[in-house]
Amino acid sequence: MSSISTPTSPPTSPMPPTDPAPALENDNETPKDWMELALSKAEDSLRAGEVPVGCLFIYKNEVIATGNNTVNETKNATRHAEINCIDNVMKFCEKNNLNYQDVFRELDVVVTVEPCVMCAAALHELEIRSIVYGCPNDRFGGCGSVFDVSSLYKYKVDVTSGINAERAMKLLKEFYQGANPNVPLEKMNKKRKKNKKEAGIIKEPVQSPVVS
């Protein structure tokens, strides 16, 4: 994946596929506790005019990376919260002289919305331990809503859904019901006009018949 920088140390030999440990098995914090923090990151995204998705990467009961969507800011459609977190974990590994493969295998990912197919595939490629998400992603979900990415992999990631789903969905609705400040005004006006036409608010003018 192009967004992941090359590690300074060579990777170890791939380990044989194994079942991951249960999500947050011995942690002091619960998935709901972690989700509260992820939701606060999603609220930051909403205030910044980004799709409100917040994400945490947890390693040995410590948050080592947080992420928001920065698609509008960067004008890069791949800069989802999970991808930004992956980049931050790579920096964490380089700074602490850790093997990135070993770290990812012990990671729990907490994200407010079901990862899209792209992000779910990236997380499976890295063989993370678990994914905990809030509301489903009915348009792009890669954990079963649209496509189950896990069907492509022998290594199975533990997935838990529905944690604070209502709050996560509420943030999404607030974003899509409001005006995205990063969308060009001309494009926004066209979309509004189209929506009004579809709703029957604006009707095309009817031409009068020509009398010969």
Automatic annotation (TrEMBL):
<dbReference type="GO" id="GO:0005634">
    <property type="term" value="C:nucleus"/>
</dbReference>
<dbReference type="GO" id="GO:0052717">
    <property type="term" value="F:tRNA-specific adenosine-34 deaminase activity"/>
</dbReference>
<feature type="region of interest" description="Disordered">
    <location>
        <begin position="188"/>
        <end position="212"/>
    </location>
</feature>
<dbReference type="GO" id="GO:0005737">
    <property type="term" value="C:cytoplasm"/>
</dbReference>
<feature type="region of interest" description="Disordered">
    <location>
        <begin position="1"/>
        <end position="29"/>
    </location>
</feature>
<dbReference type="InterPro" id="IPR016193">
    <property type="entry name" value="Cytidine_deaminase-like"/>
</dbReference>
<dbReference type="GO" id="GO:0002100">
    <property type="term" value="P:tRNA wobble adenosine to inosine editing"/>
</dbReference>
<keyword id="KW-0378">Hydrolase</keyword>
<dbReference type="Pfam" id="PF00383">
    <property type="entry name" value="dCMP_cyt_deam_1"/>
</dbReference>
<feature type="domain" description="CMP/dCMP-type deaminase">
    <location>
        <begin position="29"/>
        <end position="145"/>
    </location>
</feature>
<protein>
    <recommendedName>
        <fullName>CMP/dCMP-type deaminase domain-containing protein</fullName>
    </recommendedName>
</protein>
<dbReference type="InterPro" id="IPR002125">
    <property type="entry name" value="CMP_dCMP_dom"/>
</dbReference>
<feature type="compositionally biased region" description="Pro residues">
    <location>
        <begin position="8"/>
        <end position="20"/>
    </location>
</feature>
